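From the methods appendix. Each design record in this collection lists the tokenized structure first, followed by the designed amino acid sequence. Records were kept in a plain field format so they could be parsed without special tools. The example shown here is representative of the layout used throughout.

RECORD:
FOLD TOKENS (406 positions):
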């Protein structure tokens, strides 16, 4: 599987006297590095840029606060306004790269921040516009205004809850009344409920609101390209053509065994099972020295082995990601309420799934974090403990009875 990377730099260097302790704490929550630039300025950059940050609570035992890129950009605006003209703007330039030479793995973007405006530009959007011009023939310096690239609209959902509706060019969209209806009304106040007429003449209760389409601060053109190339109808091994085969994996270990036997007794490996036993025994000693849980990793490796065999036979079973279709691998196992479970983290869409091992045909279930104990729990059986706008805290059966006693 390919790894996607993102790095970012900020210009110009910021005078140190403009950065308060709270500013620095806030900005460093996004893994942004402060590097001294001379005696009186900071140069800011992120080796691993992520558009979300996590801020530890100032209250002992308080909950971690999740921050978005909008929060960061607004903080930079505060610093600019506070500078009284000394710092008129801040720019952020990002590069998107990939560990493998995939056409959808590269790009870049820039954000320009002033006291009263934030502007975005992405290479994906620019190329979409140029491609649109080429297809329509409206190119070259002698043409009229070029045809704009077709706007891309994205619906941002997290934890099953709508966060926002965004577009690469909201100004090109018609004036829409976009209504969001949620028929899951459990826990909703009576004053929030709408009676929605249905096609059969009946009515149904729902919670609704009008949503405004705003300018996207993510490169939806890149996302669209990846979705188009990695559709759910495509087999994972078709999409990941550079993924090693099981024969490749066996050949890698053959190289390891040859080197091990050469180190052990100065001879080649000839298939002797005792050599395999010696290697595994030495590996257990190595894991003990490195404080690595050998048995737990062996358990995960055994599951991965079974999944890789099935995948090469074209039988992925229930191990395809329900969101993006990517082949999932077990990342960890645990036991909760007496049930052994496998947990899968999708590397493509960052969703987490659970498969309970109480029966052979247990389905994959989307996972959320229980606020009571911090364990991942199936969203289908979780209850919403607290909800505000589009953000919810879930609690599972593992902690529900204890919560009632409190």
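DESIGN:
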């Amino acid at each position: 599987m390919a790894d996607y990377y993102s790095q970012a730099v900020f210009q110009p260097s910021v005078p140190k006297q403009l950065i308060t302790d709270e500013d620095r704490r806030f900005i460093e929550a996004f893994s942004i590095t402060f590097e001294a630039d001379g005696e009186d300025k900071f140069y800011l950059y992120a080796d691993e840029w992520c558009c979300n940050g996590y801020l530890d609570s100032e209250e002992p035992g308080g909950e971690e606060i999740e921050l978005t890129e909008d929060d960061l950009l607004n903080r930079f605006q505060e610093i600019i306004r506070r500078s009284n003209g000394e710092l008129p703007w801040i720019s952020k330039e990002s590069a998107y790269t990939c560990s493998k030479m995939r056409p959808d793995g590269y790009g870049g973007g820039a954000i320009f921040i002033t006291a009263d405006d934030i502007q975005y530009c992405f290479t994906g959007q620019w190329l979409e516009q140029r491609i649109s011009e080429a297809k329509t023939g409206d190119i070259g310096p002698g043409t009229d205004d070029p045809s704009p690239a077709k706007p891309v609209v994205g619906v941002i959902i997290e934890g099953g809850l709508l966060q926002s509706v965004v577009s690469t060019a909201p100004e090109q969209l018609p004036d829409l009344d976009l209504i969001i209806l949620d028929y899951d009304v459990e826990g909703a106040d009576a004053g929030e409920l709408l009676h929605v007429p249905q096609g059969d003449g009946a009515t149904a209760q729902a919670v609704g609101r009008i949503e405004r389409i705003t300018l996207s601060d993510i490169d939806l053109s890149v996302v669209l390209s990846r979705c188009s190339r990695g559709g759910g109808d495509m087999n994972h091994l078709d999409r990941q053509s550079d993924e090693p085969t099981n024969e490749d994996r066996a050949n890698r270990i053959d190289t390891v065994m040859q080197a091990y036997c050469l180190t052990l007794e100065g001879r080649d490996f000839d298939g002797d099972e005792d050599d395999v036993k010696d290697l595994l025994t030495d590996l257990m000693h190595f894991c003990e020295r490195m404080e690595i849980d050998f048995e737990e990793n062996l358990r995960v490796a055994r599951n991965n082995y079974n999944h890789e065999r099935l995948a090469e036979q074209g039988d992925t079973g229930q191990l395809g990601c329900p969101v993006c279709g990517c082949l999932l691998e077990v990342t960890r196992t645990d036991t909760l309420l007496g049930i052994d479970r496998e947990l899968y983290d999708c590397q493509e869409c960052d969703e987490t799934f659970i498969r309970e091992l109480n029966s052979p045909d247990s389905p994959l279930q989307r996972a959320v974090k229980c606020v009571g104990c911090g364990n991942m729990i199936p969203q289908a059986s979780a209850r919403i403990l607290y909800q505000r706008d589009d953000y919810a805290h879930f609690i599972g059966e593992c902690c529900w009875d204890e919560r009632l006693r409190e």
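APPENDIX NOTE: Residues 1 and 241 are 9 Å apart (CA to CA).
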